[in-house]
Structures are given as C-alpha cells and as structure tokens.
Specification:
The complex is a heterodimer of chains A (257) and B (387).
Chain A: H1 3-18, H2 22-29, E1 48-53, H3 60-74, E2 89-92, H4 93-96, H5 107-111, E3 113-116, H6 125-129, E4 135-137, E5 143-145, H7 155-159, E6 166-167, E7 193-194, H8 200-203, H9 210-214, E8 219-223, H10 230-237, E9 240-241, E10 253-256
Parallel strand pairs in A: 1-10
Antiparallel strand pairs in A: 1-8, 2-3, 4-5, 6-7, 9-10
Chain B: H1 10-36, H2 51-64, H3 67-75, H4 85-106, H5 115-118, H6 125-152, H7 161-184, H8 197-224, H9 230-261, H10 264-275, H11 281-300, H12 303-306, H13 311-336, H14 351-381
Helix pairs in contact in B: 1-14, 2-4, 2-7, 2-8, 2-13, 3-7, 4-6, 4-14, 6-7, 6-14, 7-8, 8-9, 8-13, 9-10, 10-11, 10-13, 11-13
The chains are: A alpha+beta (257), B mainly alpha (387).
The structure holds iron/sulfur cluster (SF4) (2 copies).
Residues 130, 132, 134-135, 145, 150-156, 193 of chain A line the site of one iron/sulfur cluster.
C-alpha cells in the first residue's frame, strides 16, 4: 500500500470505527483481491450467497452427510471434545436462531435441525477485528483466511457472532489419515483459525461448492446480486430468514423455512 | 544507575533466585505449550480466550493506574507524591511487560507475531492496542529513568521531560480505553457490548492499581525502611476510595440495565456469573468478589478505619482481590458464556495455563524488583527515603 492509500485506509477505518456508516463498511471490511488463483473456467459473481431449502431436508443424517463431504473435501480433522474443529454442522432451531425462538413452535420447527456454517457476512466483524489481515473478504463476497499469516490470536473467534470459527488447539494433521482425504487442498498447521471458505478453491476452477453439489438441489448457490440467479429466484418465491439479522452483519446464507 | 542492582542483602538475592527458578519452571511448561499447542489450556471452541487475555486486561489497568500519582503531581502540583511517583512509573513498566507476554503466550503462532506490524490492519482495535501499549512502555521507561537519573545527580530533570509527562497522562487513559474497545465493539457478545466498558475499566484500574502499589510499598517499607510518606498514603487512599465507589456504582448500572430491561442477552451472562446455572465455579468467586468489594468499602470509607495501620493493608488486599475477580475472571467468562448458541460451555483454567500465567507474573515481579531496587538505591543516597 502506498502512503496515500494507507492514509486513506487509516482515515476511513478510524471513521468507520466511530461511525460504522454503511458506505464505509467496505473500507472496514478490507476487501482484498482473492488469494485463490482462478483459471479461465472460474465461476464468477458479484456476491456469492447460499440458500438452504430446509423443508427439503428430513433427517439430521441428511446434513451429517453433507458435513462429511465437506470434511473430506477440506481435510477437516475429526477431534472430540470442546476443542473440536468444524466447518459445517447442524443443530436445533433454538440454537441456530436463538433470537427467533417461540414459546409454542410448530412440530417441524421443534423437531428439525438446521445447518450451520460461516455466513460470509457482508459486514463481517471477524474481518474487522483481525489484526493481521489474515481474515479477509474477497471481491466476490467470500470471507477467507490466509493460514500462513494468521497468528492465532483468536480475536476473530470472539468477534464472530455465529460461532463459525474453529481454532486448531491441536495439530490437525495428527487427526487426519496420511495422505489426507483431499491431497489437493492444504492441511492446516497447529495454532491457526479455520472455517468454511464457500469452497473458493472449487469456484476458482469452475466447480460448485462441495456441499451444494452433494445436496441434490436442496442447497442453492449463486450470485445474490443477480436477480436471475438460483438463490435470488428462490428467495423471491419463499419466506426466508437469516441468523441474527439484528447485528448488522448481513449474512450471505439464507434459510427457507 | 545499574550498579545499584549489584549490592543488596541476602534476601534480595534469594528473592531474585526464587523468581528466576519460577520463570525457568514455567518456561518449561511454555515450551510444552509451544509443542502441543493451546490444547494444554482449558480454552475451547466456545471459550476461545481465557486466563491469559484476562490477565492481560487486568495488568493494562495496573499500568494505566500510575497516572493516579502523575496527574495530581503535575496537574495539581501536589508535592507529596513526588517521593513515590517513580515507583508508580516503574510498576507501569513491569505491568506493560507482563501485558506483552500475556499476549505472546496466548498466540497460537507466536513466531508470527510481527505480522501485526508487517501487515498492519487499521480496522482492528488490536492494532491500536499494540501501538498505545508500546508507546506507553517507552514513555514510562524514558520518564522514569530520566527523573531518577536527575534525582541521583541532584539536579532538576531536563525540561523536555515535562511534555512527555503530560503526554503520558493522556496516554494512560488511552491504553485502558483502547483495551476496553477490544471488547466493547464486538457484536453479539452481550456482556461486553456496553458503552460503559471503558469507564468501568478505568475506574476499576484506578482503584486496584494504586491499591496494589500501596500494598507493595508497605512491603518495601517493612524490608528497607523506605517510607512513602504519611500524607501521600492518605491522599492516595482517598483516591482509591473514590475510584472504588465509582467502580461499584458502574457495575450496579450494568445490573440495572440488564435486569430492568429484562432482555435475556443482557441479563443471562450476569445471571450465569452469579447464579451459575448448574454450578459454574465462577459464581462462588463472583459472590466472594461482591462481598470483598463491599467489605473493602466498609473499611475504607470511614477515615478512622482507613488510616489505621493494620486495617488499611487488609482493606486494600480485599479491594485488589475483588477487582481482580471481576476483571481477571468474570469479564472473560461472562463474555463467552452463554456462547453464540445460547449454550453453556464451562471454562476452567488448567494447571499448565495457571503455571504459565504465574511465570509471566514472575517476569513482571523480576522487572519490578530490579527497577524498584534501583530507585530505592538512588533515594537512599539522595536522602529522600524516610520520614
Ligand atoms: S459468520 Fe462469522 S466467520 Fe463467517 S463472515 Fe460472518 S462473522 Fe466472519
Ligand atoms: S486468529 Fe488469525 S484470522 Fe483470527 S483474528 Fe487472529 S490473526 Fe486474524
């Protein structure tokens, strides 16, 4: 960054620290060019987003299956206990949408589970608080982590209101087979934070995210800024909610309820 | 002035030796943490900061509290603090050293810590915290050293020191304010998301820091005969009482908003801290803190009691313990429980974690001992020592 660029960024950030006004959110979020190299087949969007058609999922196993696909795709270790690592998992309505709970929920809401993952927020607190820029937002709206820059301060974990991030308390490679399930995707080192990356590495080579591909059309993925995209058409036709909308993070994951 | 470090009674050397052993011992545990990662600690996916960061927070407060001596001396020309001001400044130096170490031991990848400077992120409060803490350390080292040197040479300190002193006063407020901003600007952490956080931090720092300073100075008086001065102690105690009253008041304000509004997000962390849903160990500590805070005020408010030679140290110790539990335990646990799914994940620091934290405290004690030894040596020569 040149000097003027720095002064501008510093000024904007200082302003945004105080004001947090919408036009400055972008400055605050620190948009950086994608660090995932794209080839000519790469899928492109202004703002990637996801829509989960929760009515089409019946059992927890349906989500567990997708979580497994994700684990294999990204070499996510399976570690027991509270120091575990997870990118995609599922839980009850009350835990996924704690501020939308109802004293008398209908049977389906009471008994179903819902998937959880990073929301790739438009105004992500994790990016704002990261002191090294290791967590950054790409120009197509994906919140990614540079595992080689992360110092493991875990400020981003305190900052994420969705519990989407995991810290590698233990060496993850000890919990993976050798070779890892997907040798093409890097395994992480101990002491860094990780989370769902919306399969940026797959988009870069023209493939849809792994969970989307495995969901048989029950999870839609596409450009939220394109009214003709699959997600936008589904949102136009159905009632949907996002997690903790009152916090102003503007999640990119929608749930059709 | 360094020669002052070389002579001393046997107890002085034994003390240094003890600290060095403690540092070496906990250093070994830290090496193990480097190998096995933070899995050695009681932290988890849900409670991702623990004892290290909370001690960091507490000692930023201790560092900032030096201003309670500097401000009256330089803004109000209160002469009586002159004799002990250097001890406050040097305590700030030791405290900032501890803060830096507490951050380092908390990092998952400490060898990359320079990334904070190599890739500065001006939107992160941690970036500013690093700037203000290093600045504060430099200010206190320079000011402390220069004024002590002047005292040794029996001259007036150079004139350029004055602007630095004024700067350090503002700076002291900034370090704890920025540290509060680490917490108070995070959406979704209900216990932290409160505008009064910085004010609460400052008030708790301005009572607990000077209280710790006085306790240590009483110890020094026992050991060396150095007397901070009756009047000075009296005035500082008054400052402590005011700050503690404000601190308790601010906490009560939190309680009002949390419980009168009835918003679960606001009340649940506090309810957890005190009622401990299913018996969280921290609730016993929190009640103890509340009791100690009130008892310390009961002992400190009436002048006849607080001027009593035996009661004062006891009251100050109660105050330090109460504020430590509030900021050194409750703050972090209340912030992370309930978690983002409104569930409760217990956090209990492990033995290794506590050992490493003690090691950091031992480094702080070592720095403090050496700096204070130097100051005491100079004071003895310049006969600014007793009575
Ligand atoms: S869900 Fe959490 S980790 Fe993901 S972008 Fe939002 S704040 Fe960041
Ligand atoms: S843990 Fe890593 S990604 Fe998270 S805030 Fe710290 S440096 Fe950034």
């Amino acid at each position: 960054m040149n000097r003027r660029g720095f002064i501008k960024a510093a000024g904007l950030s200082a302003f945004a620290l105080i004001g947090g006004a919408a036009p400055f959110d972008e400055a605050l979020a620190g948009i950086a060019p994608g660090r995932y190299g794209r080839n000519e087949k790469a899928l492109r969007a202004k703002r990637w987003g996801m829509v989960v058609k929760t009515r089409e999922f019946r059992r927890p196993e349906d989500y567990a299956f997708l979580a497994d696909v994700c684990r294999k795709e990204h070499n996510v270790p399976r570690i027991d206990g509270p120091q575990n690592v997870k990118w995609l998992w599922h839980d009850t309505f009350a835990r996924v949408f704690p501020d939308a709970v109802n004293d008398y929920p209908d049977e389906r809401t009471r008994s179903s589970v819902f998937p959880l993952l990073c929301n790739h927020c438009d105004n992500p607190p994790c990016v704002r608080v990261c002191p090294t820029g290791a967590t950054y937002k790409t120009e197509d709206g994906i919140v990614a982590i540079d595992y080689h820059r992360c110092i493991g301060c875990r400020f981003c974990m305190a900052g994420c209101p969705y519990g989407a991030r995991s810290f590698n308390f233990k060496d993850p490679r000890l919990f993976l087979p050798d070779p890892p399930p997907n040798p093409a995707f890097p395994t992480r080192m101990i002491g860094v934070v990780e989370k769902c990356n919306f399969c940026a590495e797959r988009l870069a080579v023209g493939r849809m995210p792994a969970c989307v591909e495995a969901s048989d059309g029950r999870i839609l993925f596409g450009d939220l800024e394109d009214p003709e995209s699959g997600p936008r058409r589904a949102l136009a036709a159905n009632y949907s909610i996002r997690r903790k909308p009152s916090l102003g993070t503007r999640p990119g994951v929608y749930y059709i309820i | 002035m360094l020669e002052k470090l070389l002579s001393g009674p046997k107890t002085y050397y034994l003390w240094l030796l003890f600290l060095l052993c403690l540092i070496a011992g906990s250093g070994l545990v830290y090496l193990q943490q480097l190998r096995e990662g933070l899995s050695l600690t009681g932290m988890s996916r849900d409670v991702s900061w623990g004892l290290y960061i909370s001690q960091f927070t507490y000692f930023v407060g201790v560092a900032a509290s030096a201003v309670m001596l500097v401000l009256p001396t330089y803004f109000h020309h209160y002469k009586k603090f002159r004799r002990m001001i250097i001890f406050g400044e040097f305590m700030a130096v030791a405290a900032v050293v501890m803060c830096a170490l507490f951050i380092v031991v908390d990092l998952g990848q400490p060898q990359r810590m320079l990334n904070v400077m190599l890739h500065p992120a001006p939107s992160s409060v941690m970036f500013y915290d690093m700037l203000v803490l290093t600045g504060y350390l430099a200010l206190n080292v320079v000011i402390g050293w220069t004024t002590l040197e002047a005292e040794r040479l029996e001259t007036e300190p150079p004139r350029w020191i004055k602007p630095l002193v004024y700067l350090s006063i503002l700076w002291a407020f900034s370090i704890h304010t920025v540290t509060a901003f680490l917490y108070a600007g995070i959406p979704g952490r209900h216990y932290w998301l409160t505008a009064i956080m910085a004010a609460r931090f400052l008030s708790s720092a301005f009572c607990s820091g000077p209280a710790l300073l006085l306790l240590l100075l009483f110890l020094v008086r026992r050991l060396t005969g150095f007397d901070p001065g009756r009047e000075a102690v009296k005035t500082l105690t008054t400052i402590i009482v005011y700050a503690m009253c404000v601190n308790v008041f601010f906490y009560l304000l939190e309680l009002f908003t949390a419980f009168y509004s009835g918003i679960p997000g606001h009340s649940e962390p506090i309810a957890l801290l005190f009622a401990g849903h299913g018996g969280h160990w921290v609730s016993r500590w929190m009640w103890a803190a509340a009791a100690m805070a009130l008892l310390s005020l009961a002992l400190l408010l009436p002048p006849s009691l607080r001027e009593h030679r035996a009661i004062l140290p006891a009251a100050l110790a109660l105050l330090v313990a109460a504020t430590w539990i509030d900021k050194g335990l409750g703050l972090l646990i209340g912030g992370f429980t309930p978690n983002m799914f409104e569930e409760i994940t217990l956090y209990t620091p492990t033995g290794s974690e506590i050992t490493i934290a003690l090691g950091v405290c031992a480094v702080g004690a070592l720095v403090l001992s050496l700096l204070w030894k130097m100051a005491l040596g100079v004071k003895k020569e310049s006969r600014d020592f007793a009575g």
